[in-house]
């Protein structure tokens, strides 16, 4: 046999062998009489993820934490005050004087809703969320991960930290335990759990990007006591995540998701959460007192920085810390001996690097608590003990008594809060807390509406309290009346009650 014939034979054999191998594999891989996609997608190839040699590395297993936390993260839906139309004069309308707009809105029209997330923090149904999720709400509804629904009671709110405490009735609820956000480290894996865009029980992962971050979104117009010391993370958070959980990989609550850094309204790379150490203190206060107890050091502060050093014409002995620009009279700082020019570098043994850091540490305390302040003065390291005071300059506990709710034939009324009276410039009124009276509902009465006066056969009567309104209704049974008032945004409105 010639060399040419030999090589030709080898080539033909190789081609035939390759064809047989390909045909055999194709036959074996083709599903036989497949009737479902499960069968169609079966393959003889080895799944590496199911192999015995593949394991999830320790420290980045998200499954256990997600399964533990998700049942305790709820969907919060808030019914907010309705703005039916622009300012109007209901008295003129009642007497037939023409108005620039046509008649009143359809009383069956639903109030607008806002939504966010919340975290169950006790088996008896206490829930933490953001204040901005439920602010101005006349009704708050809760949906659990298993689709059970509840109406929540607002136990208390704290706009200075953007936190609120809610309560639903029941027992043995799944809940998330508080973790220690102080122990959280930059670079640590975390999960964000919430309801972005009304997509229930969404879990995203990221790392802690920074701590003690102040982004200037909270405002306390009255006392300038807002606290911003956020955990910054790159876990994806979007509208609807507000009030949801930020947890570590052991399933502990280390923050409440609150804000995103964005120019579009959606996630652009960073989100911010209130640290759990501050959350727990605020929740304890709202549960026990109904109001947050704020201990104050009473000093005017700025971050130590090269810019501040240049402005003051000073050379700071440290690169980080909090510069005391002034000390208030009758304050805890004044009594402790702090002076303008001091640099605070520690509190209770914990380092203080910036204003947000110091504000958070102090905000965890209550009036009457003692704190050890470490500071620098003229290059010397000193310490002093300060007894924190409240905004009034004493150490008394401030309690927020729940408003008394009065009832009349399915209608529940309460007095107008002082803050609302100040905003609307009214002397009083009666707020519709809830309304199960069909006659009033059909007439256009809505939760949150503030009754300021009523008209009956005996003339017009101004209403300054819930008790006055209840007394009026008792005396006017069976009569046709006109109820006048306004919604919480100041929009005036009226409706007629005609007895059946």
Low-confidence stretches: 43-51, 82-109
CATH class of the largest domain: Mainly Beta
Global morphology: globular
Q: Please report the total strand number as a whole number.
A: 25
Instruction: Summarize model confidence as the mean pLDDT.
Output: 83
Major sheet attributes: 7 strands, antiparallel
Count of helical regions: 12
What's the CATH topology label of the largest domain?
A: Thrombin, subunit H
Quick description:
With 500 residues, this protein is an alpha+beta fold. It has four domains: 46 residues, no CATH class; 232 residues, Thrombin, subunit H; 89 residues, Pdz3 Domain; 93 residues, Pdz3 Domain (Roll). The protein is built from twelve helices and 25 strands.
Q: Could you describe the 3D structure shown?
A:
The chain is an alpha+beta fold and 500 residues long. The protein has 4 domains: 3-48, no CATH class; 60-291, Thrombin, subunit H, CATH 2.40.10.120; 299-387, PDZ domain (Pdz3 Domain, Roll); 405-497, Roll (Pdz3 Domain), CATH 2.30.42. 21% of the residues lie in helices and 31% in strands. The strands form 4 sheets. Strands 19, 20, 21, 22, 23, 24 and 25 form a 7-stranded antiparallel beta sheet that branches. It starts with a helix and ends with a strand. 36% of the residues are buried.
